[in-house]
Amino acid sequence: MPEGKFCNKTPINTEEQLKATLGDKGGKQYYEEMNQLDVDSDKLWASIQKTMKSRTKTWLEICAHCGLCAESCFLYQVNGRVPEQVPSYKIQSTLGVMVKKKGKVDNAFMQMCMETAWSKCTCCNRCGMYCPLGIDMGVMFSYLRGLLYSQGFVPWELKIGSGMHRVYRAQMDVTTEDWVETCEWMAEENEEDWPGLEIPVDKVGADIMYTCNAREPKHYPEDIAEAAILFHVAGENWTVPSEGWEQTSLSMFAGDWECCKDNVLNVYAALERLKPKRAIGTECGHAHRATVIEGPYWAGRPDGQPPVPYIHYVEWLAEALRTGKLKIDPTKRIKEPVTLQDSCNYVRNQGLKDVTREILSYIVEPGYFVEMAPNKEHNYCCGGGGGFNGIGKYREQRNVALRKKMEQILDTGCKLVIAPCHNCWDAIRDLEEEYKIGIRWSFLKPLVIGMLDVPKHLLPPEE
Amino acid sequence: MFKKILLATSGAPSTFGAARVAFDMAKRYGAEVVVFNVMGVPTKAFSQVVNDVRTGEEIEVDDEYRAWVEEELKSTFEKQIESVEYAKIVTTTGVPSREILRAARAEDADLIVMGASSGDSSAYRKGYPGSTLQRVAKAARCPVMTVHRETASYWGGFGNIVFATDFSKQAENAFKFALNSAKELGCDLTLFHALDISGKVLDQNDIEDKLIAARARIRETYGPLMGDFKDFDIEVWEGVPYVEIVKIARERSADLIVLAHHSRELDPELASIGSTLEQVILRAGCPVVSVSKPDKV
């Protein structure tokens, strides 16, 4: 059973392993080793028998191959409508065959499954809405990813991604010290413009505990500052935990179930330690899915809920605008055609479709908001979901995948796209870099800060 | 006063002027130079792939690439690095303005020295001349020195400083920096205010009254803070502020202009042009120091 130095069935658990794997430029050696990687059929079959529950079994069996899911898949649409991109075909030819053969499959089959699972499905779950039998290929592909991960057939970047979560409990190498230091730094950097601004760390019993995406402290700490400014202006009693602040889960995209559980327990431990009234996550879709929608089940919580009410940033923002905690200066509202990207992970997965539109009703001058078509729970994936954005091996396929979103945006005629999800924001940025259609993109936080009607006492003293 | 100078450079020729000033200052005043380079801007969701700051190409940052960039920087600034007592090269990836601020904080730098813009050498698409400078100048705790056009006669020392004030709070910090520099480096100091009459047609008597008032205001505001420092004079001219600042610097053969940065506007499209500071930086024939915060003056 030859296992490679980098490509093997063992997860990355130490910093040393992580750095070594990172040093393998582009995963060159990793993918070479993958060609030699044996499939442990017994283990695979045992795992399927143990973990494949009746829902997945039934779905695999009752699929009528009617093809009604075909048009629902944006990857089918942008890839010349070839049969290989029909969702039911994609799952039947991979997971379906793996089950039928009782795990007795070979390396080439596993590599085909890997390619299908990570470059032909973003787990956006749109197909599930159009299947007359309610079969959700996205859910099944997540399951398949887990099986593939356990056998070592996972794209290089995602092996690293879940390794990051295992080593640092963050998707990037941000340590507790780095994080706390960043909070201090951001409070300091903005205290002059916002007198009294604080980013309280580990305050017990606050109304809100805020969690974020590791990319923020790593590269875009202004996002944390912006969250702080809005909480400050809204007069919220809030805090961030020193441990358990990272809400994302690349392990979920990698199929590393064990790591998923560890991460979400880390966040929940912070909730139990700091006892806030509720928790609010940043503008990130998959982080919300991982911590709020799927997390409770990974953590084995009997009620299927996080320890305290846990809401997405858009829910808090809508509430703050609705209740007047934050006031918008009507003269500063957006007065240009603007469109909204619905993130699959909190729109289709949790139904937060109206709340984002409520926010837009406050910040956009009436008549300027243009819906994409289709939209809300029918909206298409940004093109880079499910880890697709980050995988170098499938860059080309990802760039093709962006075309659907490009068409949708071009059809609206808008030059400004609001994307309250990190991954969608990235995909739309990449889309502009790749196709140069002349658009801008933004999170909600900076837009709202720019148009706030700030009470006088919160402004710096007049010079 | 300048124990540690952070030279933020892409390694491109547009930053050579800044490098020259930074190293000359370090040599003269015994400071340490941290040659700081942001190799690439993170892209594609995870940080392994970045866009090279200079070429715009997608690269994977690994030990080999890091070593190559360091080697390039070392050979670019070889003679200068040898000429100072302490120098080190620090490289990283990230958004340049953010990483410069992070490094300045981590290194506890006394001064950041940088070019005004990445010029034509920047292929990074979202950059625009000055965007990095704008952000750094706004948020840095220490003074930020910009070198855009060098005077041919510059020899590394400062003899004449022009401090331009608009009487704002930030200008007080800039003043402290200008005064301390003048004291410590033995310079002449010109306190200057440009009475903004751009776009207005004013009565000449009115202008003259205002000039007298501004002169008095400079004397009242800064006079008591001068202590035993005597080598200063006060000038107030009317006109378009950035033109007048550049003019007086030229007239006094100033080798340093100090002024406050207090634009709150960070939207690149709005902030990239129009501020007095930016126009002074682009036009002045000597280094320009912008001061925003009181910490390091």
Automatic annotation (TrEMBL), chain A:
Keywords: 4Fe-4S, Electron transport, Iron, Iron-sulfur, Metal-binding, Transport. SUPFAM superfamilies: alpha-helical ferredoxin. Gene3D superfamilies: Alpha-helical ferredoxin. Residues 338-424 form the Cysteine-rich domain. It holds the Pfam family CCG. Residues 60-135 form the 4Fe-4S ferredoxin-type domain. InterPro entries: 4Fe4S_Fe-S-bd, 4Fe4S_Fe_S_CS, Cys_rich_dom, Helical_ferredxn, HmcF. NCBIfam families: sulf_resp_HmcF. PANTHER family: FUMARATE REDUCTASE IRON-SULFUR SUBUNIT, HETERODISULFIDE REDUCTASE. This is (Fe-S)-binding protein. It comes from Pseudodesulfovibrio methanolicus.
TrEMBL record, chain B:
Residues 1-148, 158-291 form the UspA domain. CDD domains: USP-like. It comes from the Bacteria. Belongs to the universal stress protein A family. This is Universal stress protein. It comes from Pseudodesulfovibrio methanolicus.
